[in-house]
Every structure is written in C-alpha cells, then in structure tokens.
Amino acid sequence: MGTGALISAAVTVAAVWPDVVGQAVAGGEVEVRIYNINEMHAGSLEITAREGTRITGGRTNVGNLSLVVAEDGRSAVSSRAINGWGAAGASAWVTLQVDPDAATGSVLAGGQGRVINSVGVPNMVISIAVEVLGAPEITQHPQDVSVVEGQGAVLSAAASGHPAPTVQWQTSTDAGTSWVDIAGATGAEFSIDDARLAMDGTLYRAIFTNNAGTAVTESARLSVREVRYLNLSVRPIVRLVDTL
After folding, report:
1. pLDDT value at position 36?
2. What pLDDT is recorded for position 35?
C-alpha cells in the first residue's frame, strides 16, 4: 500500500478581512488570525466556534492581554477590553480543531469574531470558516511492465484527496535505495518511449501531494528483453515423379 502523511499540527492562516478561512484535515487543527487589516476598534473580543469545530487555544500579540477559552471549546473572550483591535493594534489568534468525522471537502462556516464596545454593540465582525482537507490516498498503483528493447510502455497511477493532489513521477536505478524526480513527469500517466537494455530493472513510482499531506505509490519494475533474431535456412527438396 502507499504511504501517507497527514497535516495534524496547527497551521497559521493569514486573515483576509472580513472573512477568515482556515484549512485542516478531519481531526486536525488550524490557527487563524482575527483582526481588521484597515481599521482599529475598541472593546472586548468575543469568538465563537462553528458546529463541527472547537477552540483549543488562543493568543494575542499584546503582552498583558490573553484569550480565555471556554471549557467546552465553543467560545473564547479577551481577558479585558482594549482601545485598538486591528490595523496596527492588537490581533488575536485562535486554534480550531475539526471534528474527526467532518466530511472531506466541506466548509465549516458560521464561526465568528466580534469586538463588542462599551455599550454592548459589536463594532467589528469577522466570519470564520474551516475547509476540511483530505490527504492523498492512492487509488491506483503502477504495475510492473515487460517489453522488448526498443518498445515503449505506459505506467499509470491515481489518488484521491482534497484539494486534488499533484503528481510527480520518480525513478530508481539502485533497487529503491534512492529516488530521483523525472523532469516533466507530472501527469497521471508516464510514458517510456524507447526502452533500452540498460533500463532493465529500473523502478518507477508516483508521489501525490496536496496541502494535507503526501502519498507514495508502490514501485513498478521495468523489464527489458533483448531482441532475438531467428536464422532461417531454406533447403530445396527435389522430388522426381514418374509420369509413364
């Protein structure tokens, strides 16, 4: 089977005001930054997590200002009100954990960050969503192929994942001890146009990669046989026929 590597550590995603979209695999975490890139607002910061996510941590860039996370992970609030959230002022970061059963490719929208002013009115609102990524999973491995010298061959591989993974074919001439990328071999199929005897025993594999991880196919072996020519000799047979 192919091997895979998931992104499970927190990944920081820069905010795009007024919406923040983080990315994480099901069961993984993402850290998102909450601030207004253009304006500063006064008040206390309140953050709520969308169903299917929970807040596992929070921080700010102000030394004596912290985020207090609720025990159930559904919300977090700043430890006090300040005069300058956003722009050149304070920013907050929260770490959101995605539920393990979240559907790959779904966008868990509905989270929110709000700065509440002294009379209880929100004067900065930012929406928070998390896109659920899926690490590549191999669905088709390349198969061993045997050809006669001078012939061509085609190797195929496939993988699922969200977003759709890219592919890079590699080759090994030392039985898999080391691998080298094949320049330009970035499609689901890799063609060998003119197999030579020196290529006999060469291994090939495909590596699929997206934002969530990497998966590697099993290796396929190329066998190249020598062209053998038959030497045929023709010996005429003379048969005498008595016509009398």
Report:
1. 78
2. 80
